[in-house]
Amino acid sequence: MEQLYQQVILDHSKFPQGKGLKELVDGILGAESFQKNPSCGDEVGMRVAYEGEPGHATIKELSWDGQGCSISQASISVLSDLVTGKSVEEAEHIAELFRELMDTRGKGFAPEDDAAEDKEDALGDATAFTGVSKFTARIKCALLGWSALKDTMSKTGMLVDTDAADATEN
């Protein structure tokens, strides 16, 4: 299984999805983010175009360019595949699952977690990064693009603060 995961990372690194920055179009809500991992020098520039209003928007297009290790570049490629065309809510849920996976220190989701299989299904190829989470220094590489995505969501107002929403409903 570990060899399969390594192959997924290598394939995405060699043939990255979404790579090549595209211009943001006037009249369509979008944002750009530049993120750099100071510990290793990996970097990404990402542009995301959204369609719809906050709370009901989808990721219309995600493009990026960057340089760095195969882990950071493959992770951004996988992210591009996973979230393009998804609602912002779905994309943020997938991002939360990926961050949770990075906290497992190489163990993956706990077998006693009733939602483990659903989480892995939602992550698709991103589950290949389970082994990466064993190495603290590499976790930042894997999370680089996910940070850029979240930054574009913040800049456009697409991130809905669920904690604040819950507090106003109670």
Please write out the topology:
Elements: H1 2-14, E1 30-36, E2 43-51, E3 58-67, H2 70-83, H3 88-102, H4 116-123, H5 136-156, H6 162-169
Antiparallel strand pairs: 1-2, 2-3
Helix pairs in contact: 1-2, 2-5, 3-5
Pairing-aware structural class of the strands and helices?
alpha+beta
Instruction: Let me know the average pLDDT.
Output: 91
Number of helical regions? 6
Overall 3D form:
globular
> pLDDT under 50 segments (min length 5)?
162-170
Percentage beta strand: 15-25%
N-to-C series of helices and strands: HEEEHHHHH
For the CA atoms, what is the radius of gyration? Answer: 16 Å
Question: Descriptors for this entry?
Answer:
globular; single chain; 15% strand; 46% helix; 3-stranded antiparallel beta sheet
Structure description:
Mean pLDDT is 91; it is low at 162-170. The N and C termini lie far apart (46 Å). This protein has helices spanning 2-14, 70-83, 88-102, 116-123, 136-156, 162-169, and strands at residues 30-36, 43-51, 58-67. It is 46% helix and 15% strand. It is α+β, with helices and mostly antiparallel strands and 170 residues long. A three-stranded antiparallel β-sheet has the order 1-2-3, covered by helices on one side.
Summarize the structure in short.
With 170 residues, the chain is of the alpha+beta class.
